[in-house]
Amino acid sequence: MLRVEVSKRLGEFTVEAAFASEGRVTGLFGTSGAGKTSLINMIAGLLRPDRGIIAIDGETLDDTSARTHVAVYRRRIGYVFQDARLFPHLDVRENLDYGRRMNRLAEDGAQWRRVTELLDIGDLLDRRPGKLSGGERQRVALGRALLSQPRLLLMDEPLGSLDEERKEEILPYLVRLRDEAGIPMVYVSHDPSEMRKLATQIAIIKRGRVTAFGGTEVLPTANVPA
Amino acid sequence: MFDISPTEWTAILLSLRVATVATLVATPLAIAVAWLLARREFWGKALLDAAIHLPLVLPPVVTGYLLLLTFGRRGAVGAWLAEHLGLVFAFRWTGAALACGIMSFPLLVRPIRLSIEAVDRRLEQAAATLGAAPWQVFLTVTLPLALSGVLAGMVLGFAKALGEFGATITFVSNIPGETQTISSAIYSLIQTPDGDTAALRLVVISVLISTAALVASEWFSRRALLRLHGS
Hey, are the CB atoms on B130 and A46 less than 8 Å from each other? Predict the structure, then answer.
């Protein structure tokens, strides 16, 4: 269970959002500039709310009234960025292993095989991020986040920088991830069709506020241009 | 011409030792300061920046004299160090290393700072979301990505330390076998009748060492760049 009740002033713009989700995939849907990224940056701990509470499964990560703020690296929240952000000086294998090393987790061969097979990245292990296609990079970024064994996975427009063909290449992996990995996810997108395919609960974000929350029925019926 | 005398050998080896120790001791400190200047906002930042660059603009003899006042046997810091740690700088090769370290510090800090500033902070954020504590982010992401700048700074600092003259001779004088580096040996030889050939020999050696250092730095930064952009 993810509970978010935050307010944060960003220049002329204020994010003031509240929702609680039990879903396997919580979608944050809205046009660009609506405050979706600021919202998940707050969940990740990269951005500190001015006021409010963020909690996962009853554990408080942020509570401004109690001055609680758990540091990013202690949250165990995975984050897949739109721009992959693989470490250029490490090969794919080292990128994938990074989270395990930082958290001093034991090696888990079974988990490693599951993730590399799920994402079809077993053949890329010795390559450098510079030698990967956009779609491959995004799959490695997904694997890297998964292998750090997070309790929640945040995805900020993970298909945003890919063309239509690549999107179609990655979407099935995300669906498999949702059904097989057993990690709750927060998925940010401005694409209603991605939301329909992936999200189990959706928050509609407009100008920093949650204007509707529910199943796929809260999505606009016509495909609105992003 | 190429018959190097024992005194000259002593000066050459001493110069190498002084410059190596100065660079190795100054580098971790320079990395810390460069990181502070590149990544942190704090009160007195401009002052720290100015203090580091001071040896670059002060007459070296002034820096040397200030070192003598502070780290000399009767200097506040020097007396304390001699009494509590048995560490003496005045008229010792360690003093030469200290003078060289301070004179080369700005040259060491600058390229490191620039290369840290050039590291994409979004990569550091990604590392943090994967569970890396700030010191781990620094050691596994920031520092490796800034490596070419660190190496460039080290070579530049080493070259500067090798050639340092004014502050060193003011602080620790020109004692053969203890504080007489290549620079001060050349200075002495020029003032000695018939010292010209020996001086010229040391000049050639000094040019060779500096060139080798520059070639090495070029090679290291190329390798570091290759590492970054994948091969």
Answer: no
Tell me if B63 sits within 8 A of B55, measured CB to CB: yes
Assess if CATH 3.40.1170.60 describes domain B6-58+92-229: no
Average pLDDT on B165-184 reads 92
Mean local confidence (pLDDT), A2-26: 90
Asked if residue A69 has pLDDT above 90, the reply is yes
Chain-chain contact of B125 with A85 (C-beta, under 8 angstroms):
yes
In degrees, to the nearest 5, what angle opens at C-alpha B110 toward C-alphas B105 and B116? 125
Q: Domain extents for chain B?
A: 6-58+92-229
Q: Annotate A16-32 with b (16+ C-beta within 10 A) or e (fewer).
A: bbebebebbbbbbbbee
B9 pLDDT higher than 70: yes
B230 pLDDT higher than 70:
no
ipTM of predicted complex:
0.91
The model's pLDDT over B58-108, given as tens digits with 9 standing for 90+, comes to 999 999 999 999 998 888 898 899 888 888 898 899 999 999 999 999 999
Half-sphere exposure of B137 (CA within 13 A, CB side): 21
In this prediction, residue B231 carries a pLDDT of 44
Q: What angle do CA B52, B54, B59 make, to 5 degrees?
A: 145
Relative to beta strand A2-10, strand A201-206 is unpaired
- A188: tokens are 């940010």
Q: How far is B107 from chain A (nearest CA, A)?
A: 26
Q: Number of A to B CB contacts under 8 A, please give it.
A: 74
Domains and CATH numbers, chain A: 2-218 (3.40.50.300)
Which of A44, A83, A88 is opposite residue B129, by nearest beta carbon? Answer: A44
Task: Tell me the pLDDT tens digit for each residue of A148-180.
Answer: 999 999 999 988 878 888 888 888 888 988 888
B193 close to A (CB below 8 A): no
Q: Is A205 helix (H, G, I), strand (E, B) or coil?
A: strand
H helix or E strand, kind and range, residue A168 = helix A164-180
Alpha-carbon dihedral B34, B35, B40, B43, rounded to 10 degrees: -40
* B226 pLDDT higher than 80: no
| Minimum Cα–Cα distance from B143: chain A residue | A89
Instruction: Identify the band that residue A4 occupies on the pLDDT scale cut at 50, 70 and 90.
Output: very high
Compute and round to an integer the Cα radius of gyration of chain B.
Answer: 20
Angle between helices B147-163 and B6-39 (to 10 degrees): 140
Q: Where are the alpha helices (DSSP H) in chain B?
A: 6-39, 45-57, 60-71, 76-84, 93-117, 121-129, 134-137, 143-145, 147-163, 166-172, 182-191, 196-229
